[in-house]
Amino acid sequence: xxxxxxxxxxxxxxxxxxxxVILSESHPAILKQKSIKVAxxxxxxxLVISGITLVFQGGWLSTDYxxxxxxxxxxxxYIGLGVITMHNRGAxxxxxxxxxxxxxxxxxxxxxxxxxxxxx
Length: 120
Prior knowledge:
mainly alpha
């Protein structure tokens, strides 16, 4: 059940990020609404809580947990690149956006494979 919640929050998180980037280009005034500002923080908090719950529920800390650390580092990169995306314009915004999407893809693949070095 927690896995379904976690996957739902993953989907909501990425959709809210991409949606906010689109809104920032087309209708930036909408981003000033309180619900648009607060909702991503709530979604991402629930995403992290459900992820931590899954780690403990799955007993993944009792085995090789390098993949979890890789996901955490990539998550920090995703957050940083997301902040750069939302606070910049032009080429910097789009490079950060592509980097954030690459981080999201990496996190997703590591989650499925449980291997931080799946590309080797």
